[in-house]
Amino acid sequence: MSKQPRKQRKLIYKAPLHIRHKLMSVNLSPELREQYGRRSIPIRTGDSVKVVRGDFRDHEGKVEKVDLKNYRVMIEGASVQKPDGNKVYHTIHPSNMVIIELDLDDDERNQIIERKG
Q1: SS3 of residue 107 by DSSP
Q2: Domain total for the chain?
Q3: Is residue 114 part of a domain?
Q4: Has residue 53 been placed in a domain?
Q5: Is residue 111 part of a domain?
Q6: CB 40 within 8 A of CB 25
């Protein structure tokens, strides 16, 4: 793999979906880090997150939608009002949030969390 910044950017912009999903990993809170022995995990709809950077700092909410195309996450309650009165989600990059509660309804996700490596 190349160290060149231009090729690193190219990888991000041209990445296929299965790689984009891994790039959308979010750090776990210190309690979850201790519990699962992992630093981060790919974000999913239904996870509860806390924003640690930006306009919505300290805002907590559930993940409503994950936008793999633009590398953004939409969180319940993190919205802005347009001049015409409509509310629109304010998208947030996954590096600016921390997972505080995982959605463990899926058996496959449980296996991913519990496996080593």
Answers
A1: helix
A2: 1
A3: no
A4: yes
A5: no
A6: yes
DSSP for residue 72: E
Cite the beta strand spans of the chain per DSSP E: 25-28, 40-42, 48-51, 60-67, 72-75, 79-81, 87-89, 97-101
What is the total residue count of the chain?
117
pLDDT (tens digit per residue) in 51-93:
999 999 999 999 999 999 999 999 999 999 999 999 999 999 9
Q: Which amino acid is at 108?
A: E
* CATH code for the domain of 21: 2.30.30.30
Q: What pLDDT, in 10s, does the model give residues 6-54? A: 999 999 999 999 999 999 999 999 999 999 999 999 999 999 999 999 9
Domain that holds residue 82: 5-105
What pTM value is reported for the model?
A: 0.87
CB atoms within 10 A of CB 14: 8
Backbone angles phi, psi at 46, to 5 degrees: 105, -20
**Nearest residue to 23 via CA among 61, 69, 65, 58:** 69
Residue 7 is encoded by which pair of tokens? Answer: 């090729």
The reply to whether 49 falls in a domain is: yes
